[in-house]
Specification:
152 residues, mainly alpha, Arc Repressor Mutant, subunit A, 9 helices, elongated
């Protein structure tokens, strides 16, 4: 019977970061499941994450940019901003990350792929509006898309 080698918190963190970007809080949460319950380990995780940030290996700004880039073709800025907040990204970074998202063009593209033609009645309009709203687009953008109002 062989036992698996114990992987250090540092190596686990590097493994996570080698796969994709993580926010500090997200990585802290993942590492906490492997650390023993004590204040020393919490301090150890924080020191490790501070070191990673100093080295440039861990960046909430880079994480936010990556999430926006990956999601902007399918979701509106409200949904993307919500996801970033859930992952523990600072509000200032959230605002700056989603400010360049063109909600009208993205909503038009998402709507075109799903429906392709303007709603024929109120029920169809409401259905399409609910779909776009569930994707994180604001009501002003939804009205412009569904009423076929050109981009300002």
């Amino acid at each position: 019977m062989t036992t698996k080698p114990v992987i250090s918190l540092r190596q686990r963190a590097l493994n996570y970061l080698s796969r994709r970007e993580h926010s500090r809080r997200e990585l802290q949460h993942k590492l906490a499941t492997f650390a023993e319950e004590s204040d020393d380990n919490t301090d150890e995780i924080n020191a490790l994450l501070d070191d990673f940030q100093k080295r440039g290996w861990l960046s909430d700004e880079r994480f936010a940019e990556q999430v926006v880039h990956a999601r902007k073709s399918r979701y509106g800025s409200m949904k993307i901003a919500h996801e970033l907040r859930e992952k523990g990204v600072d509000e200032g970074l959230v605002v700056s990350a989603v400010e360049d998202v063109d909600d009208f063009r993205n909503a038009k593209s998402v709507w075109q792929r799903k429906f392709g033609e303007l709603p024929a009645n109120r029920e169809a309009w409401a259905k399409q509006a609910r779909f776009l709203q569930s994707r994180g687009f604001g009501f002003d953008v939804i009205k412009r898309v569904l009423n076929n109002t050109p981009e300002e």
